[in-house]
Amino acid sequence: MKSKYKTLLILLILFFLPYVSAQTVSISGSVLLDNINERVPLVQVDLIDANSFTILDSVFADDFGNYHFQNVDTQGGTLDIFLNVISDSSFADIAYNLFQASYNHQSSVYSNINSNTAINISINTNNNTEEAFKVHNHLYKVFVYYRDILEFTPSGEVNVFFPTTSSTGYSNIGNLIHLEQGDTEYKKVVHEYGHLIIDKLYVTDPANEADCERVQTNPFTETGCKELAFEEGYADYHISPPNNTDMGPSTYTQGLENTVFNLAHNTAMGHKFHGEISGIFWDIADAPNSSDGSVGVDDDKIFNKDHMLWNVLYEYSQSEKPTDILEFYDRWINKKDYVEYKNLQNELYDIYYENNIISGTNDERISNDWAFFLEISLNSYSLNVYNKVVEYLWKK
């Protein structure tokens, strides 16, 4: 009898042993940029066996930078793991220019995982890796603005080479942003991402609709055109909507709604006024309590109309999309069956005037002659309205 019981006991142990050794746990936590106290959303997280370096599972963090691995085999409580975060997501991949390999950041090794475990992955390495994940977060803010607010998701992932062996810029070949060493600040990164947006919106970039040359010998002899100013101004605009705040004057690309420019963006030339163009877009999109570039002045005439701004660019056919700031004005007031656009055209006049956009033809000095602007740029209906107002005031 005793041997029978012993045999039965052995069989029971053998029967239940797989279930004991196959115990599973969950591993979860957040990906953090410690130096700026931000979560890192949507990046890839790999769960790696610290002994064999085998990838056990891969997930993507959510919009809040949280990741979660379920049903991880503890290997009988002897599992040693570490986590590897990769600067790749559904909307952006940040890579070394030289090797075109995504940046990664590894956590410490955690030994003998045998219960549900929380692990936060902190990125604070003070080198290019940290800057790469910071770039990812800059791009995410603009991506979310389009995805959630404007309900538009650019097709294709943007690929960022950092540090680049060329100069900072955007190329539509491969949705590629080049960033020079030191050019990872928010304004510069999202300006280049703005070029991606317009590249996905237009079959041909506005700057290619005319004889535009991106050649610069010195700040005062750069060859350009109003289409180029339009495209650059729209790229400038992107620094503000995700934060709903005017980012203020910049020595890089623009001084939103501020006439103080650096030498490379001389406001005397008609094709150089993309700072004013970004000011127009921002004045349309911003909230009534936001402040503009001019100190102590809030010159909003239209606000919370970013959807209207976007629809002027998005809803027109490719052949009718505006390619300069005056065409944008015409497309705004001629939106078919949209009374609201026409009701706001007087406010749009004021915004254009406040931002010094009057003529904008190649190499023509910017004029503050508002009547001249109306005469050359408005349709006959608007001009008639203007003439009637002038006639009425003259009689008064």
Q: SSE string, helix = H, strand = E?
A: HEEEEEEEEEEEHEEEHHHHHHHHH
- Distance between the terminal alpha carbons, to the nearest Å? 121 Å
Roughly how many Å is the radius of gyration? 28 Å
Content of β-strand: 15-25%
Helix tally equals 11
Range of helix content: 25-40%
Shape: elongated
Oligomer: single chain
Helix/strand-derived category reads alpha/beta
In the predicted model, the low-confidence regions spanning at least 5 consecutive residues are: 17-21, 214-223, 249-271, 359-396
Mean pLDDT: 77
Q: What is the β-strand count?
A: 14
Largest sheet: 5 strands, mixed
Give a written overview of the molecule.
- By secondary structure, the chain is an alpha/beta fold.
- Among the domains are: 22-90 and 98-125, Immunoglobulins (Immunoglobulin-like, Sandwich), CATH 2.60.40; 222-395.
- The chain has 11 helices and 14 strands.
- The strands form 3 sheets. Strands 1, 2, 5, 10 and 11 form a 5-stranded mixed beta sheet that branches. Strands 3, 4, 6, 8 and 9 form a 5-stranded antiparallel beta sheet that branches.
- The radius of gyration is 28 Å and the shape is elongated.
- The protein starts with a helix and ends with a helix.
